[in-house]
Design brief:
Layout (H helix, E strand, L loop, with lengths): L16 H5 L11 E4 L10 H21 L3 H20 L17 E7 L6 H8 L9 E7 L6 H11 L3 E5 L7 H9 L7 E5 L4 E2 L3 H5 L8 E10 L6 H22 L11 E4 H6 L10 H11 L3 E12 L5 H21 L1 H5 L5 H30 L7 H22 L9 H16 L1 H12 L7 E4 L9
Parallel strand pairs: 2-3, 2-5, 3-4, 7-9
Antiparallel strand pairs: 1-10, 5-8, 6-9, 7-8
Helix pairs in contact: 2-3, 2-13, 3-14, 4-5, 8-14, 8-15, 10-11, 11-16, 13-16, 14-15
Length: 468
């Protein structure tokens, strides 16, 4: 890929981790909401204009379908195309992975960016520093992003206990959020493979032994393990997130099985170092570095594998307000990457199969929810059913099928009984009702991005250390 395809990255700075760790810990309280104006590189400029153009096209196109005599025929044709792609995904057989490593195990660098995580950081470090992997073949880096709670003190104590733990404390002037933190420590790491986790993560002790062999296929640039919700039993929202993660991982596995796109999800992602350095590390000009990196990996012709086992446990948000903030960030970051890399996508830099799969996904996840508002308005004003009803019905059906299949795949290593299908069905129904929030999130996000000032907004997900 040409060097100028990606933004210049000047965030790699050689720092002494010991001096950073021992730096002055007296800081002022920071707001949980961080907003900064950016002088964006050219590729990331004009997002609002691009979003406004797409919004105009989608709204006017939807209205035109209601007014045109051929509108219904067009929608049925579109539904047929999407339906064929959906059937191919449903009946695809997941790839079989080589579970044993041939030759020596590569060195792995495990990285966690943490800010004010005193409730969970101790448990995380003990978990990651006791993985089943040859001694001296992996290291754990915790980047303390200038925490103002007891996180620095906890890390300092743990650093005395675990020799494979390394800590870097960022200054108050450091920028770039999680992406900036990861970029800052990357030059200090030694791993051929880079593993990234959130501060609330918990993994099985054999995680590395199960994931590392997947990189024996040369085209694999990254691996994403399934995210499991540790506090899934807490309430409706956490139970819904559990079903959502099952649906998401099932879709990723099925899409990669047909040569489509696998995606990174931030927590529990493994990236090949050569792939990561090929495009300059993490993008600091996006609010979802994992989704952005997904596109950059595929544009560089790497594959991303997604697996159900092993899984990484994380806390699900427990309230509607917290869920709204989190999912708006995910939706905005996911939409940003289409606006940022549209020209490379249209040039088919990913290859035909991946580009086609990506376009089908984009229509279902972003275009269809955006079109729902003018479709509903026109259907009410003209006293008719929504013209996009067949496509919406197909989308919901795929969600139900995928969720049930994903939940069933999670239970494949557990003992089934006569009640299992009914339990899975109940979880699917509840999860489907929960997933309806995405219609509101997606439609509002695509509209908001078309009119609001250009800025990044990050709302911290508070971790309490809760689990089932």
């Amino acid at each position: 890929m040409p060097a100028n395809s990606w933004p210049d990255n000047d965030s790699y700075k050689e720092l002494d981790p010991l001096n950073s760790l021992l730096s002055d810990l007296s800081v002022t309280e920071e707001s949980v909401v961080e907003t900064r104006d950016l002088s964006l590189p050219s590729r990331f400029q004009g997002r609002r204009g691009k979003a406004a153009l797409i919004l105009t096209i989608v709204w006017s196109g939807t209205i035109a379908l209601h007014l045109a005599s051929w509108g219904s025929i067009f929608v049925l044709g579109l539904t047929t195309i999407l339906g064929i792609h959906a059937l191919v995904i449903v009946f695809a057989k997941p790839r079989h992975y080589q579970k044993e490593m041939q030759g020596e195990l590569p060195f792995v660098s495990v990285m966690v960016a943490a800010k004010n995580e005193e409730a969970v950081i101790g448990k995380l470090v003990k978990n990651l520093c006791n993985l089943e992997y040859p001694k001296g073949q992996y290291e754990v880096w915790i980047i303390d992003d200038h925490s103002t709670d007891n996180t620095p003190q906890v890390l300092a104590e743990l650093a005395q206990e675990y020799e494979n733990l390394k800590v870097l404390r960022r200054s108050a002037q450091a920028v770039g959020g999680k992406s900036g933190a990861l970029n800052q420590v990357l030059p200090l790491t030694k791993g051929e493979l880079i593993a990234v986790f959130d501060a609330d993560a918990q993994v099985s002790s054999d995680l590395l032994l199960q994931v590392v062999p997947l990189f024996q296929r040369d085209k694999v640039g990254a691996v994403q393990v399934r995210k499991a919700i540790a506090n899934a039993k807490e309430n409706f929202w956490t139970k819904g997130q559990m079903a959502e993660m099952a649906l998401d991982t099932w879709f990723q596995q099925q899409r990669t099985a047909i040569g489509g796109i696998g995606e990174l999800r931030g927590n529990g992602q493994f990236v090949r170092r050569t792939a990561l350095e090929g495009f300059g590390g993490w993008n600091e000009e996006t609010i979802t570095d994992d989704l952005d990196m997904t596109f950059r990996l595929h544009l560089d012709n790497w594959d991303i594998e997604c697996v159900f086992y092993p899984a990484v446990q994380e806390e699900g948000v427990t309230s509607a307000v917290a869920l709204w903030h989190q999912r708006n960030r995910w939706a905005e970051g996911g939409y940003q990457r289409f606006l940022d890399y549209w020209d490379l996508i249209l040039k088919n830099r990913m290859g035909t199969r991946k580009t086609w799969d990506m376009l089908m996904f984009m229509f279902t996840m972003y275009i269809l929810p955006t079109a729902a508002i003018p479709d509903l308005f026109m259907s009410v004003s003209r006293h008719r059913l929504p013209i996009l009803g067949p496509v919406t019905g197909l989308s919901i059906t795929m969600s139900v099928v995928g969720m049930y299949a994903g939940l069933r795949r999670i239970r494949q290593e557990q003992k089934f009984n006569v009640y299992t299908p009914f339990v899975l069905l109940l979880q699917t129904v509840r999860g489907t009702l929960y997933m309806l929030h995405w219609l509101v999130v997606m439609s509002s996000t695509t509209a908001r991005m078309s009119v609001r000032p250009k800025r990044l907004k990050w709302v911290k997900t508070v971790h309490t250390g809760s689990s089932h």
